[in-house]
């Protein structure tokens, strides 16, 4: 692991994206969203994810020239077609539009069909909160989780993000419907650790904290068992209904082919009724424990000061891709 | 347990509410919402809840003469003041208005402050779905759950409801942020059963399936551990920010004094873009297991055919309250 200044990573990554065909301004934005994800400590969906993202472009799953476009509008509700373009650019454009509608109508919703993996969902929560509004968004995914009562994957882990603005630092929840992602299971296994709580079933159908047993059974747990399973179904149904796009059961099982997914972006502007006051500060103070997003502030400061932590081999690969 | 025809229960309950000061039309609606809750099998929040509801009226916590009123509006976002009126009437009026805004603006949101317990949250999900729109609503509650990392209750179990319309029967998720309610814990204990999964901590801080141990420690689990804890915080923050009303930490610990809570009602009308088609049917068919709300259809049919199951002593009490 080496540390590289943020600006340098940003430059190299933008160059990589330009070389693969993304228009310069859009390449810079997409690179920034990847860089900020690593900066904020969400390493699984930042720079480490770029090689897989490039593979989806080369395989034709992601069309770097496509731009999301509004195809229908009714008041504060809009349908956009993501045209299988770059996932983080599509999602950013959708939340940007939802924020603009929130300023006008008090709230706004963009339902986005035919898009691709948005990488870190929290990105769009921070985007809303940094603009001073409440952001709520969710996405469906390929089937990677058995619903409660079944043993094979038929529902998505469908991340849900809820973000509220606060002068001292936004409160941002970014959570998938699985208790542990496959990435998290692999990390625990590699460290030789048990999960802190039950994370799924083993092949015999027993609840277990052994990450390898869950990787073997393909039966991770939904959060709250039947509850997270149900919420996953409803997030999928609302995303498909509002966007007119595809539901989880219509998506393939190959992560490189996870294209044409459906997402919902909601923004609310409570400031239309007056200053927000210290409501959120007082909630945070009442908890006595960490609030969602609190760790990000510390990690962000550290990574900005010391440079982004990057795997050395990955950094060489990215520089080669950039022609540097 | 006896069975009483739905119409007879409705008549008696409406008479009870009129006698305690609710205006006749409003009494009929409030009675209907209680009756439908029992009809749908949610016995904890239907007729069984009426004595406690009457107690909150007699104690002055609930003002039966107050009607929720819009106090601010901006496009598709409205703030209402519940004036500490009857919780289910306030919530019904708020979702009704959100539905009307959804028809006009594509979506609509009513944020309701100073209201009281809405009884079954699913009521307002069914209300939206029966009107052909997507309904999402949530409420904060008094502090009844320790946040993840703490041992005393500081967050609410903040029920979240998501409902989508479907000709063959709506899909309605109605879930609190605790894995088991105190009512559910008591039921398991009375039956001498262990919980099917860990439901909280015992006094020594160990995860347990023993309902009595959790009742003793006052440490039920949030769904998904840190995840449900975080979602509870965000539901509270968004409800307080949007409504301008109170957050969980500002509410007392006495259930009879759980007044002045904050709620959010959202409705989306995807039909503004054309017919809904069979999207939800196909999602339901793909699951291979029960969908959220499926049990309701069966229980509802049985209770409509046989009459509502009512505790005999409770029925006598209600008839006495009604002067019958």
Topology:
The structure is a homodimer of 324-residue chains.
Chain A: E1 2-4, H1 6-19, H2 24-39, H3 50-58, E2 69-74, E3 77-81, H4 87-105, E4 107-116, H5 122-130, E5 134-139, E6 160-164, E7 171-175, H6 182-190, E8 200-201, E9 207-208, H7 211-217, H8 226-243, E10 259-268, H9 279-287, H10 294-306, E11 308-310, H11 312-322
Helix pairs in contact in A: 1-2, 1-11, 4-5, 6-7
Tell me about the largest β-sheet of chain A. Answer: 7 strands, mixed
Adjacency order of strands in the biggest sheet of chain A: 2-3-4-10-5-6-7
Helix content of chain A: 40-55%
Most extensive interface: A-B, 70 and 70 residues
CATH fold group of the largest domain in chain A:
Ribosomal Protein S8, Chain: A, domain 1
| Cα shape of chain A | globular
- What structural class results from the helix and strand content of chain A? alpha+beta
Provide the succession of SSEs of chain A.
Answer: EHHHEEHEHEEEHEEHHEHHEH
Number of helical segments with 4 or more residues of chain A: 11
Distance between the termini of chain A: 20 Å
Quaternary organisation: homodimer
Total number of β-strand segments of chain A?
11
List the uncertain runs of chain A. none
């Amino acid at each position: 692991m080496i540390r590289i200044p943020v600006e340098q990573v940003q430059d190299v990554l933008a160059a990589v994206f330009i070389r693969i065909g993304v228009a310069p301004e859009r390449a810079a934005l997409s690179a920034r969203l990847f860089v900020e994800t690593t900066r904020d400590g969400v390493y699984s969906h930042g720079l480490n994810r770029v090689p897989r993202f490039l593979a989806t472009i080369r395989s034709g799953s992601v069309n770097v020239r496509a731009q999301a476009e509004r195809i229908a509008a009714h008041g504060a509700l809009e349908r956009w077609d993501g045209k299988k373009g770059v996932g983080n650019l599509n999602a950013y454009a959708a939340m940007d539009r939802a924020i603009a509608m929130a300023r006008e109508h008090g709230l706004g919703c963009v339902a986005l069909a035919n898009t691709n993996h948005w990488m870190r969902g929290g990105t769009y929560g921070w985007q809303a909160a940094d603009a001073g509004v409440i952001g709520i968004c969710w996405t469906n995914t390929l089937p990677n989780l058995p619903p409660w009562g079944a043993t094979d994957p038929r529902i998505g882990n469908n991340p849900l993000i809820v973000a509220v603005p606060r002068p001292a630092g936004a409160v941002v929840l970014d959570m998938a419907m699985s208790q542990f992602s496959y990435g998290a299971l692999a990390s625990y296994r590699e460290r030789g650790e048990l999960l802190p709580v039950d994370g799924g079933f083993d092949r015999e159908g027993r609840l277990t904290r052994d990450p390898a047993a869950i990787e073997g059974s393909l039966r991770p747990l939904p959060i709250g068992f039947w509850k997270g399973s149900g919420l996953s179904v409803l997030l999928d149904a609302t995303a498909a209904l509002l966007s007119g796009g595809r539901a989880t059961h219509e998506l393939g099982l190959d992560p490189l082919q996870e294209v044409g997914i459906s997402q919902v972006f909601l923004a609310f502007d409570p400031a239309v009724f007056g200053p927000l006051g210290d409501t959120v500060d007082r909630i945070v103070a009442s908890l006595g424990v960490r609030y969602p997003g609190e760790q990000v502030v510390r990690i962000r400061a550290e990574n900005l000061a010391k440079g982004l932590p990057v795997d050395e081999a990955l950094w060489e690969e990215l520089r080669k891709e950039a022609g540097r």
